[in-house]
Specification:
- The protein has helices spanning about 15-30, 75-95, 110-120, 135-140, 150-160, 170-180, 225-230, 255-260, 280-285, 305-310, 330-335, 350-360, 370-380, 380-400, 400-415, 425-430; strands at about 1-5, 35-40, 55, 60-65, 100-105, 125-130, 165-170, 205, 240-245, 270, 295, 315-320, 340-345, 360-365.
- It has an 8-stranded mixed β-sheet with strand order 3-4-2-1-5-6-7-8, sandwiched between helices.
- It is globular and about 65 Å long.
- Helix 1 crosses helix 15.
- The longest helix has 21 residues, at about 75-95.
- It folds into 2 domains: about 1-210 and about 400-430, Glycogen Phosphorylase B (Rossmann fold, 3-Layer(aba) Sandwich); about 225-400, 3-Layer(aba) Sandwich (Rossmann fold), CATH 3.40.50.
- The protein is built from 16 helices and 14 strands.
Length: about 425
């Protein structure tokens, strides 16, 4: 098949959506398909310009010369979106061979509308891979309120999905949110990928876990981690690490309050990354010097494994208003290196369910400082950390494998009728992929 993949960002850019898309694209090429990616020449931050075209791992990459204001402001971001939309539409309608399938991601929002329009023009199939569910994330962001505008956007979302061969989501709760858009109440695929009775026509809604970098693995138990020494952390310190995007959908107040309460007697709290809420963490570190809060930048991919393995406990969070709208991917990396995860946020989401199901960490409700302090105290026990870290690693090896999950997605895109879905965990089996 000739398959066209659409996303604003793609490798070598660091945007996670592009990295995951490249993993899938490589698998599709290995399965004998002709794969083309259409993306922007500008990097996620707007600072870099990539070649107009190239072949990478057998994938044809076509980059459009959209504007590159990056993340410097709302209007700049809108300008980048608008310029990319226009160039992409022209490229889809008038450039290149007719594809057999167009798969759209969600950067920029509603890029799937262009994929659907082009599919209709070429008489081919279209599908969607949802990383963030719009316009719901706009409501969660506080960017808009319910009203006629959001109502119109919801209709666009429903229209975008209508007639698609497949809609892929990142987890069972997210699949339920998409199903609700289509007027369906519950999931529809069981463990054997059998179709439950449904109203037609409607797209197939599936959930597939994201995966960790294939290089991620635990650090040898008795081998010193050079990054701890480089950062001046002693061997007997317990390091709590939040690594990744500090976005609006995440919670930091509970962690920062615990750091203040425990002071110099508590663990070292390390926040590495960037995002809208980084300033909140920086301010807390400056105003509370006894809280032992360190704020670091993103680390290069070449040292990511050492970075993740340098900590004893990883931190994760998700505000309850964002449940079912996105699935942060940091859990996959944490589990892959055998580190337990301390999570704060809503429980009705994939991160909380998978931590509880695996036994690979602790789940604490929002604003429950007493329970958070108890979980921290428990996590200071090295035996407990080792037990939960091993449970996390076991879960990752069973469910967060790139090859397995990309092969399953490829089979669905190809239209294979016999797809084995190897869910062995009770919770995952209960929340099996849906088809609507």
């Amino acid at each position: 098949m000739r398959i066209t993949l659409l996303n604003q960002f793609y490798v070598p850019d660091v945007a996670p959506t592009g990295l995951y898309l490249h993993d899938l694209a490589r698998v599709l090429v290995q399965r004998g398909h002709e794969v083309k990616v259409i993306c922007s020449r500008r990097s996620y931050d707007g600072a870099k310009i990539f070649p107009r075209s190239e072949i990478l791992d057998g994938v044809e990459i076509v980059r459009l010369r959209a504007t590159g204001f990056g993340r410097r402001g709302f209007m700049g971001k809108l300008t980048d979106y608008a310029s990319f939309y226009g160039l992409l539409l022209a490229k889809l309608l008038f450039g290149g061979k007719r594809p057999d399938l167009i798969l759209s991601l969600t950067t920029p929002p509603y890029i799937g509308l262009l994929g659907k329009l082009a599919a209709k023009q070429h008489g081919c199939r279209h599908a969607h891979w949802i990383m963030d569910l719009y316009p719901d994330v706009m409501l969660a962001h506080g960017m808009a309120r319910s009203g006629w505008f959001i109502g119109a956007l919801k209709k666009l979302t429903r229209y975008q999905f209508k007639g698609a061969d497949h809609v892929f989501t990142l987890g069972p709760k997210m699949a339920e949110s998409v199903s609700a858009y289509l007027g369906k109440s519950k999931s529809g695929r069981n463990e054997n990928d059998q179709t439950v009775s449904l109203n037609q026509p409607s797209p197939g809604v599936h959930w597939l876990c994201l995966w960790s970098n294939s290089e991620m693995s635990p650090w040898a138990e008795h081998e010193p981690n050079p990054m701890r020494a480089d950062r001046g952390w002693t061997a007997d310190e317990v390091i709590f690490l939040y690594s990744g995007n500090m976005g609006l959908g995440h919670r930091f107040g509970e962690f920062l309050a615990a750091a203040k309460t425990l002071g110099r007697l508590g663990p070292r709290w390390v926040f590495a990354g960037d995002g809208k809420r980084r300033a909140e963490v920086v301010a807390a570190a400056k105003s509370q010097p006894d809280a032992r809060i360190d704020v670091l930048d993103y680390v290069p991919k070449s040292v990511l494994r050492a970075h993740l393995c340098s900590a004893d406990v990883h931190l994760a969070s998700l505000d309850s208003s964002w449940q079912g709208l996105m699935v942060p991917s940091k859990l996959q990396g944490s589990f892959a290196v055998g580190r337990p995860v301390l999570y704060v946020g809503g429980r009705d989401c994939e991160t909380a369910v998978w931590i509880e199901e695996s036994g690979g960490g602790w789940v604490v409700d929002e604003n429950d400082q007493a329970s958070l302090l108890r979980a921290i105290q428990e996590s200071l026990d090295p035996v407990e950390r080792q037990k939960r870290g091993l449970a996390a690693l076991t879960f990752a090896r069973e469910h967060f494998q790139m090859s397995t999950n990309c092969q399953r997605m490829a089979q669905l895109l190809e239209g294979s009728g016999d797809i084995s879905i190897p869910h062995h965990s009770p919770g995952l089996a209960e929340m099996a992929p849906a088809k609507l």
